[in-house]
Specification:
Layout lengths: L7 H9 L23 H14 L9 H9 L3 E3 L8 H4 L10 H17 L7 H26 L36 H18 L11 H14 L3 H12 L12 H6 L6 E5 L9 H4 L1 H5 L5 H9 L14 E3 L1 H6 L10 E3 L9 E3 L14 E5 H14 L5 H14 L10 H15 L6 H7 L24 H6 L10
Antiparallel strand pairs: 1-3, 2-6, 4-5
Helix pairs in contact: 2-5, 5-6, 6-7, 6-8, 7-8, 8-9, 8-15, 9-15, 15-16, 15-17, 16-17
Length: 484
């Protein structure tokens, strides 16, 4: 096979074909063929590998946050990273989110584990727990694939809709098993995500830290998925269950900035864990480097207290920074404004940078990445209440004001649906900034992206990411998105 034609499942099958049903982790993150999935140790190692895929630079290692911010309207790009992010910031065609191959590698690993579980020697309770974890992760992977490469369920443009993404639910460990599927419909993809999350809520472990796919993580993800599906009743139900689930807590005003300085954010219901120094993605690829030139929490504190002259040498690129218009939304009394501060002198410029990610583990360029926080669930529930067929604006404002007052702002008195939704959008924008939400919010709301580098009308080719041409060549049943 031509190594440049990387239809993902085929590549992964060839990778495993010399030793069927074998997986291993070296040291903990990569797959190999020396430990059988028929053993508990082999399955546990494979489970770790599925989680580890989330740390890839195309996923939560960087791009699902930083590139999504580049595409949206809250960030601007300073060309001080060797041209990195410039094209994405200008929404140049073909410069977009990606990761297709990595997503399907992770999905295939999860599928292989699910196939091996029934014949394993785990207890039934252990089997159920692992099944719940894998179905949560598979749902998360398919959800992200869908929102990158396909329209959201209620925001479809029929003329340019090419469907969702291929649904692969059986593990492939032999080339003879390979199929070349078409793109499932968007409705079919969401039906599978719902099914996986229903199983995850029922079976995932009820205890564990935010780095584990728990029942509460499944509740939280279900709330987000339901919101994207405009299934507001379920968004309210699962957001409420997630808020009350016991993993992740809503921090107080005086803890807010400190929560982002902690290695693990106490608000996290699910986060991607970077554990060893070897996992640092380095200055060229790390999320921290994309956002800030500041090396560490201690350096950020020292700079905030006093700007030494000359400034210390910059560590990260700090190329993806907030726009002036976005910073103007953060009033001085808003505690969240404390997360944006002047960085170091990089390429002759000193600008305000986002400091949510600051080598908090003690290792530069290595941060745990919150995927779902408690604050997001309040905002999901507020939006869902406000968009019900019969809106519940009182409940919506209660959740919005919980976010506002924690930020140090006075409670809003918005009372019409339009005013409540406008306040919800503002708080969502401020609260979740630089966590990769704004681009996807504009997309599901069917909004144009308005920016100084050129607007992106909703439905423009650039609304959806292109599938790599090598995937289209390898799988003749795979249809490219319109305009590419």
């Amino acid at each position: 096979m031509n190594k440049n034609i990387k239809y993902t499942i085929l590549c992964f099958a060839v990778f495993l074909s010399s030793c069927k049903d074998l997986l291993e982790v070296t040291p903990r993150q990569s797959l190999d063929t020396s430990v059988a999935l028929s053993t508990q140790d082999g399955i546990n190692a494979a489970v770790t590998s599925v989680y580890s895929n989330l740390k890839n630079v195309s996923l939560y290692g960087r791009d699902l946050l930083a590139i999504a911010e580049c595409l949206g309207d809250d960030a601007r790009i300073i060309n001080r990273a060797g041209g990195r992010f410039v094209n994405e910031g200008q929404n140049v065609i073909n410069s977009h989110l990606g990761g297709w191959a990595r997503y399907y590698i992770a999905i295939n690993e999860a599928n292989l584990i699910l196939k091996a579980l029934p014949n394993s020697s785990f207890t039934q309770a252990q089997k159920d727990g692992i099944e719940g974890e894998m179905k949560f992760l598979r749902a998360l992977l398919y959800f992200n694939l869908s929102r990158i490469y396909a329209y959201d369920p209620k925001s479809i443009i029929p003329q340019t809709n090419k469907g969702g993404v291929p649904l692969l639910l059986d593990g492939v460990d032999d080339p003879a098993q390979i199929s070349f599927p078409t793109r499932a419909s968007i409705a079919e993809v969401y039906a599978q995500i719902y099914k996986d999350l229903t199983d995850a809520v029922a079976k995932a472990p009820t205890t564990g830290g935010p780095n584990k796919a728990t029942k509460n993580a499944a509740n939280a993800l279900f709330a987000r998925v339901a919101l994207y599906n405009e299934d507001y009743e379920n968004a309210i139900k699962y957001a409420t269950d997630g808020i009350n689930g016991g993993i992740g807590r809503f921090v107080a005003n005086n803890e807010y900035v400190a929560a982002w300085r902690s290695n693990s954010n106490p608000e996290s219901i699910f986060e991607v864990l970077f554990q060893t120094r070897q996992e640092s993605l380095g200055v060229n690829d790390a999320l921290q480097s994309a956002y800030t030139s500041i090396a560490s929490v201690s350096q950020a504190s020292a700079l905030a207290a006093s700007r030494p002259n000359p400034l210390p040498v910059a560590n990260g690129w700090g190329a993806v920074v907030p726009t002036t218009a976005f910073l103007a939304l953060n009033v001085a009394t808003d505690v969240r404004r404390g997360l944006y501060q002047d960085g170091l002198n990089r390429s002759g410029s000193v600008v305000p940078e986002c400091t949510k990610f600051l080598g908090k583990s003690g290792v530069v360029y290595m941060d745990n990445v919150p995927v779902i926080r408690v604050s997001e669930l309040y905002l999901i529930r507020a939006e869902a209440y406000a968009r019900l067929a019969t809106p519940n604006l009182t409940n919506a404002m209660a959740d919005i004001n919980r976010i506002r007052t924690r930020a140090g702002l006075t409670a809003s008195t918005a009372s019409t649906q339009a005013a409540v939704l406008a306040e919800m959008e503002l708080q969502r924008r401020l609260e979740l900034a630089f966590e990769g939400h704004r681009w996807f919010d504009l997309k599901r709301w069917r909004r144009d992206v308005i920016k100084s580098t050129g607007n992106v009308p909703y439905g423009d080719t650039r609304t959806l990411a292109p599938i790599l041409n090598s995937e289209i060549i390898a799988n003749k049943n795979l249809v490219q998105n319109a305009g590419y």
